[in-house]
C-alpha cells in the first residue's frame, strides 16, 4: 500500500462556471452531449441567508452557498452537520477593488461591512450563518494550486475524523486595474462532498498520490480555457471522468513540479 495515498468517496457535486450554471449542465457538456455556450456565471439569490445578510452577500458568498448546497443536496446530506474546507486563490475581487478605490480618496473611511466581506474567510463565515453549522471549518489559499491544496486538506481531515467533509473550491474576478494583474475572467467553483466509506449515495471513489507527471488538459477549447483561467477549475479533468463514469487515472495541476495523480474508482 502506498503510504502517501489518500482515499475518499465522492457523494455529491456542486458546480458553477461561465456558461455552466449547475452540475447537471456541466455534466452534459463534459460528456459532449451538448456544447459549452459562452455566458457569464449565473449566481442564484442565497435565499437560505437571513434578509440582512442576503442584501450584503457578495458574489463569492452567492457562489459558495450555491455550489455547497447543490453538492449537499446531491448527496442527501444535512449541511448543519458537515465539516467544511473552503479553498480559493484570493478573496472577493469586487470588494477588494472598492476598498482600494476608497483608500485612494481623501475620505479613507472604510465601511465595516465592505471590510468583512473582503477577507479571505468571508464565504466560510456566511456559510456558517446560513447553515448553522458548528462543525470544523478550514480556509485554504495556495494561489493557482488552491483546489489541490483544498482536496488534500479535506481528505486529510476526512481520514482523521472519519466523518464527511464538504470541499468548496472557488474563485472570483477582479475589476480593472487589478484585473490586468490577475485576469480571472469570471467567478466559478466546484463543491465535492467527500465521505470516508462507500455508501448507496457514492458516485465514485478517488485515491490521490503525488506525481511529477504533466497535468492533463481538455480537448474542448472552451473547457480548457476555463480550466486554465479559473484556478478552482483545475478540477475539470477529474470532473470529466466523474461525468463520464470512467475509472482510471487523471493528473491535476498542483504546486509544480509536483502534481496530483487521482485514480477514480467507479461504484
UniProtKB/TrEMBL annotation:
- What InterPro entries has UniProt attached to this entry? Ketoacyl_synth_N, Thiolase-like
Q: Annotated Gene Ontology MF terms? A: acyltransferase activity
Which sequence ranges form a coiled-coil region, renumbered to this chain?
A: none
Question: Where does the record place the Beta-ketoacyl synthase-like N-terminal domain?
Answer: 45-206
Pfam families, alphabetized: Ketoacyl-synt_2
User: Would you tell me the protein name for this molecule?
Assistant: 3-oxoacyl-ACP synthase
What is the protein's species of origin? Azonexus hydrophilus
Amino acid at each position: 500500500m502506498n503510504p502517501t495515498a489518500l482515499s475518499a468517496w465522492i457523494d455529491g457535486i456542486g458546480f458553477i462556471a461561465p456558461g455552466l450554471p449547475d452540475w447537471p449542465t456541466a455534466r452534459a457538456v463534459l460528456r459532449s452531449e451538448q456544447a459549452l455556450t459562452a455566458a457569464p456565471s449565473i449566481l442564484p439569490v442565497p435565499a437560505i441567508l437571513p434578509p440582512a445578510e442576503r442584501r450584503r452577500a457578495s458574489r463569492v458568498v452567492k457562489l459558495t452557498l450555491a455550489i455547497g448546497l447543490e453538492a449537499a443536496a446531491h448527496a442527501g446530506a444535512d449541511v448543519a452537520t458537515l465539516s467544511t474546507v473552503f479553498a480559493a486563490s484570493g478573496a472577493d475581487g469586487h470588494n477588494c477593488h472598492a476598498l482600494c478605490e476608497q483608500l485612494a480618496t481623501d475620505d479613507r473611511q472604510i465601511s465595516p461591512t465592505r471590510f468583512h466581506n473582503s477577507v479571505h474567510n468571508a464565504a466560510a463565515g456566511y456559510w456558517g450563518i446560513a447553515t448553522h453549522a458548528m462543525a470544523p471549518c478550514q480556509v485554504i489559499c495556495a494561489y493557482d494550486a488552491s483546489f489541490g491544496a483544498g482536496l488534500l486538506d479535506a481528505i486529510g481531515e476526512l481520514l482523521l475524523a472519519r466523518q464527511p467533509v464538504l470541499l468548496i473550491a472557488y474563485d472570483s474576478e477582479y475589476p480593472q486595474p487589478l484585473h490586468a494583474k490577475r485576469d480571472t475572467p469570471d467567478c466559478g467553483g466546484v463543491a465535492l462532498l467527500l465521505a470516508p466509506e462507500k455508501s448507496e449515495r457514492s458516485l465514485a471513489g478517488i485515491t490521490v498520490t503525488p506525481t511529477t507527471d504533466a497535468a492533463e488538459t481538455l480537448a474542448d477549447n472552451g473547457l480548457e480555457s476555463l480550466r486554465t483561467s479559473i484556478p478552482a477549475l483545475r478540477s475539470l479533468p477529474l470532473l470529466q471522468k466523474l461525468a463520464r463514469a470512467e475509472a482510471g487515472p487523471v493528473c491535476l495541476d498542483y504546486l509544480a513540479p509536483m502534481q496530483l495523480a487521482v485514480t477514480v474508482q467507479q461504484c
